[in-house]
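lol forgot to send this yesterday, sorry. struct tokens for the thing we talked abt
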């Protein structure tokens, strides 16, 4: 009886560490929607001179609480378009974790950080289900047009949650749509974040004039 009770306690601890309640179905991390293939094309696509103005990226950083000294994670960073802007915002006392799963993109981020003299950028080669962020170090996370490509978002989000500080915020900028057109329904996003242990804070539609893009914030 004692061995059985001890085993039960150990199983409960394991489930809790994974963010899953004992007795939850094994499919608790699955999603029922299409996702897009991760982008592997030319990074110049993201370097449009008007992009920062169209996305109002400074306002995005304000709403995420990104300031001097912050630790920021850019998930699916591509060539580091947002990473360099966040790095300038946080300054030498801050840090930006620029994560991507594509090795050539990570190399480009490293080269760009050197070119732009931003030693506070740390390029990270993540994997599809884990961005490899340090535990409880991050103040703000942004998925900029990357969330629709994540095949197992709830698994990845639980790792992101472990990296956030208690007051940390997570932002998602994406377009309304589905995996076939490189978008994702914001209602699906909100449900998945809730399943991963996040709380919805706000939704904004200022990030693109055509109204197709949305900006969601969670804590």
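and heres what i got for the seq, position by position
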């Amino acid at each position: 009886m004692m061995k059985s009770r001890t085993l039960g306690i150990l199983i409960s601890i394991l489930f809790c560490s994974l963010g899953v309640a004992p007795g939850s179905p094994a499919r608790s991390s699955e999603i029922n929607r299409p996702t897009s293939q991760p982008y592997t094309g030319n990074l110049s696509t993201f370097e449009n001179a008007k992009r920062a103005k169209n996305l109002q990226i400074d306002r995005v950083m304000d709403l995420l609480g990104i300031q001097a000294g912050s630790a920021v994670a850019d998930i699916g960073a591509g060539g580091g378009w947002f990473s360099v802007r966040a790095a300038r915002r946080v300054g030498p006392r801050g840090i930006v974790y620029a994560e991507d799963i594509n090795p050539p993109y990570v190399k480009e981020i490293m080269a760009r950080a050197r070119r732009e003299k931003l030693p506070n950028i740390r390029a990270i080669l993540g994997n599809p289900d884990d961005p490899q962020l340090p535990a409880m170090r991050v103040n703000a996370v942004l998925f900029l047009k990357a969330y629709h490509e994540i095949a197992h978002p709830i698994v990845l989000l639980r790792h992101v949650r472990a990296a956030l500080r208690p007051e940390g915020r997570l932002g998602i900028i994406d377009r309304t749509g589905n995996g076939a057109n490189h978008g994702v329904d914001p209602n699906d996003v909100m449900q998945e974040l809730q399943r991963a242990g996040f709380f919805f804070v706000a939704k904004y539609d200022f990030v693109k004039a055509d109204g197709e893009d949305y900006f969601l914030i969670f804590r």
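The first strand starts at residue 71 and ends at 75. anyway ping me if u want another try
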